[in-house]
Amino acid sequence: AILGPPEVNITSCPNCINVTIKLPASHFRDKGKLLSLTDLYGELHYNITLKSLDGEHKRPRQKTTEEVFSTVIEDLYPSRNYCVSVVVTASTNKHFVPSPWVCVTAGPEAGQGYHEVIIAVAGAVCVSLMVVAVLKCVHAAGFILPKISLPLTLV
Questions:
Q1: Any bridge partners for residue 86, and if so which?
Q2: 3-class DSSP state of 99
Q3: Whole-number Å distance between alpha carbons of 103 and 52
Q4: What SS3 class is residue 134?
């Protein structure tokens, strides 16, 4: 039996891509029930080949016992196009068809998140209010712009 091709989807993340792999269906049945590849082989191996401007790079072989699983490829250049192809093999079956190439652009470097921006703005507002309160107290005490009493002739 020939294994593959697996179904591959990729999404971008900051300086990385997330690869979701769905094992190919098997055509074997047991008592009318369609068996999965993990039912047949238990543990399967998969290889991911990553293609970019630098050429093709085979990632180390990994094991899986799940029908659908994800892996993250990190330390990529931001805003660069990457393509992946996946091969699934079993210890007793080396006949395979690789997945078609699937491409995506890696996300830009991680910037400040929404919550950090809100906290920064709230902090700036609090500091501004404290400065205004201190200046108001100093003014009321007469240290800034003291009230000068005018001579009676000018009143």
A1: 48
A2: coil
A3: 9
A4: helix
